[in-house]
Amino acid sequence: MTPAARTQAAIELLDAVLAAAREGGAAADTLVARYFATRRYAGSKDRRAIRELVYRAIRAFGEPPESGRAALAGLADEDPALAQTFDGSARGPAAIAADEPRAVPGVAPAWLLEQLAVSGFSRFELPALVDRAPLDIRINVLRPGPLDLPEAEPIAGLPNGRRLPSGTDVERLDAWREGCIEVQDGGSQFVSLAAQAEPGQRIIDLCAGAGGKTLALAAAMENRGELLATDTDRARLSRLPARAERAGASIATTRLLDPGRELAALDDWRGGSDTVLIDAPCSGTGTWRRNPEARWRLTPERLARLVDTQERLLEIGRQLVRPGGALVFIVCSLLDAEGADRIDGFLARHRDWEAEALGLAAGRPRGEGVRLTPAHDGTDGFFVARLRAPC
Length: 391
Ligand SMILES: C[S@@+](CC[C@H](N)C(=O)[O-])C[C@H]1O[C@@H](n2cnc3c(N)ncnc32)[C@H](O)[C@@H]1O
Fold this sequence. Notes:
Elements: H1 3-23, H2 28-37, H3 44-60, H4 68-76, H5 80-84, H6 110-118, E1 135-139, E2 153-155, E3 158-164, H7 174-177, E4 181-183, H8 186-193, E5 202-205, H9 212-220, E6 226-231, H10 234-238, H11 240-247, E7 252-256, E8 273-279, H12 294-297, H13 300-320, E9 321-331, H14 340-349, E10 354-356, E11 364-366, E12 369-372, H15 374-377, E13 382-388
Helix pairs in contact: 1-2, 1-3, 1-4, 8-9
Bound molecules: S-adenosylmethionine.
S-adenosylmethionine is lined by residues 206-210, 212-213, 230-233, 236, 257, 259, 262, 279, 281, 309, 313.
């Protein structure tokens, strides 16, 4: 493909990404894969170049651009080589007119910048939200084995955490195939430590998804005790048993919940968990590094629905904790509406519960919990709080 044809392909793909963001359609990665599935003439270098251009544009603009062409015209203003590809050739885009619309660079839509500001988020920390994310792994103590890790760097505060060069094909490493390592962002590892999981405990991972944190809990519990992983999403939860087997996390069991009837399926755990971990569904504002198009998809209405779910999950979790046990609330969001405010609300409703210090070697205090940010901690953004039930 010519450089101009690559630019045209990126414009078409960005149009599809923007439409999907408006209409709740497929993720950008899926759209890119589908696009190339029907264009066999695109070689691997073309695919890589087009994909990079699409993601460069997604990272560059906080407000959704009005079109793929406006996005790339915005980038071309700062990139003469890209501008030259608007050459009007047979498969390339028409030349950019002086007065045609261009997307304006930014980190997030205006309403989300406002939400971040009221959440005490400094504007100096904004650019790091859309940087490229590093590749972090957790060494799995349940499967000790040879670690053939190229250029792994330690992560301060995480004895089992390592940072690998971006682009490392982890799944080709023997250490991954044998379950000796798990891919897990450093921030996710830190907040998992807030559970203070110990061998012999009974723990529920209420929003377990495919089990990222479940596996970390099983390792901390040295595979002793009971660990129940639940979720309402059948597809996600169904991936957990195979991951647990590979990781040797034999204490993890799964249970699918019915949305709205969660407690009915958890009667045998009511008032009986040492710890309930709620890794709640959230806006994902802390994970834009990995999923930058998420900021084009979020709306105030969707945020309000997520907050309702978080409130409900806190009430469900509360009823599962034993007297004197702990409720750990996590979101990969930087917004107080989904973090500090939810915990303040919970503590106002349940005055006999108390927030506890977390003792994490990362993050800064935020309300009654701790917040990690990409700029300060070099991890995805998270909020975590630990609440102690009355005895
Ligand atoms: C942030 S994700 C969990 C990620 C997972 N803990 C990990 O570490 O990989 C939130 C999860 O909450 C689940 N969820 C949403 N509503 C729920 C509910 N009412 N009860 C339990 N899980 C729910 C979603 O299906 C999703 O898998």
